[in-house]
Amino acid sequence: MSAGAGESPAEQRWLIAANVVRWRRYGDGGQELRPGTKSYRGGSKVYVIESYAGSGHEQLTTVGRGRHTGTYITIGMATRNLHTFRAVPVHSPTVLRLCEEADVGGCWTTREDAEELAVRPERLAVEYRTGHWAAAHPVPCRCHECLTFSPV
């Protein structure tokens, strides 16, 4: 593939990628289910470019294709709404430009750095999802935990 008009080919950088949960609990006591989030469709791939260390990584800055426009957006979102954190090589000039414009230093240059940083948000996302709602899950439930741990 060639770079778009006015864009030069980007060098590879390593970022943390994650997927948006397909269904999330919502409403009073988490008894309702909503697909994805307000900004991203369920299952969408997003790139994590910053975690808010002061909040214990409860919020992450992400870059991904928006639910309504399909164009790349940069937003903060709850860690509990993401899963499968992993290190990935990124070549997209648009993603790298948005990462640089956010000025957060999230474009790691080595695979090892990105892999090391991807471990903690995965563990925290599970903790935040299970601890966020005190009430029992709705029946039937299609939230991320229920879909992940249900028998085949």
Spatial gap, N to C terminus? 40 Å
Rg, rounded, reads 16 Å
SS-based structural class?
Answer: alpha+beta
Unreliable runs = none
Describe this structure in words.
The protein has 152 residues and is of the alpha+beta class. It has one domain. Helices cover 25% and strands 30% of the residues. The protein is built from three helices and seven strands; from the N terminus they run βββββββααα. The protein has helices spanning 93-102, 111-132, 144-149; strands at residues 13-20, 23-26, 32-35, 45-51, 59-65, 72-78, 82-90. A five-stranded antiparallel beta sheet has the order 6-5-4-1-7, sandwiched between helices. A two-stranded antiparallel ribbon has the order 2-3. The radius of gyration is 16 Å and the shape is globular. The termini are far apart.
List the helices and strands and how they pair.
Elements: E1 13-20, E2 23-26, E3 32-35, E4 45-51, E5 59-65, E6 72-78, E7 82-90, H1 93-102, H2 111-132, H3 144-149
Antiparallel strand pairs: 1-4, 1-7, 2-3, 4-5, 5-6
Q: Can you summarize this structure?
A:
The protein has 152 residues and is an alpha+beta fold.
List keywords for this structure.
152 residues; alpha+beta; 5-stranded antiparallel sheet; 3 helices; 7 strands; 30% strand; globular
